[in-house]
Amino acid sequence: MASILVVDDEMGIRELLNEILTDEGHTVYAAESAVQARTIREQMRPDLVLLDIWMPDTDGITLLKEWSKTGQLTMPVVMMSGHATIDTAVEATRIGALNFLEKPIALQKLLKTVSKALESSPKYIEPQEDKAIQSGVTAPTPKSISTELALTAPEGQYISGIAKTYFDLPLREARDLFEKAYFEHQMQIMGGSMTKISEYTGLERTHLYRKLKALGIDTSRNKGEQ
After folding, report:
1. Does 35 score more than 60 pLDDT?
2. CB contact at 8 A, 186 and 211
C-alpha cells in the first residue's frame, strides 16, 4: 500500500487519520509541524501528504510554496482545514495542491480523496491493479451487497458471532458496519454518555466524537452532557 505523511498540529487529528489510514493498510508518518514535515518528507519520500493549513510555526500554504519552489513537490498534496476560505483553497490549488479536505473530515470523503490522490502519485501503484497488469487480466470489482442485507442475516447464519453476510463485503465496508453497530449499541446501553463510552473503549473524547461523526452516528442528543 502507500506511505502517507499527515501534517497537523492537532494530536487528535493525527491519531484519527493514523488509525483510519493504517486500517486501510497504508504506512502513516505523522508530523506536528513544518519542521518535522520537512525531515520526514526528505527521509521517507511519502506517496501522499495530507497537510493542515493552519499551524503555529510555518503554515501549510507556506510549506507548500516552499516545496513547489525547491522542486520537492514530487508527491500529491491534499490540504486540510476547518477554517479556510474559498480563496485559500484556490490559492493552494494554484500552488500545486491536488485537493482540499474540510474539517471535521468525513470518513468516506477522506478515503475517496486519498484513493484519487494516490492514483496521481508518480511512484505508487495500487497492489490489486499491479497484480492485474502482470497477469494480463482486469482486476475484479468487489461484490456489492446492501447495508440492509449485511445487517439482517437470518437467525443462525453466523460465524464466531458475526453475520455471514459481513464476510462477503469488502473489508472497509464490513469494518464500518461493525463499528457503527458497536458504537450505537454502546450508546444505547450507556445512556448516550460520552464519558462512559470513552472510558469503556479507551478512546479520548475528541477522538471518539470525530469517529462517531465519521460513522454517521448522531451525537447531538449528548451535547448537554457534562
Report:
1. yes
2. no
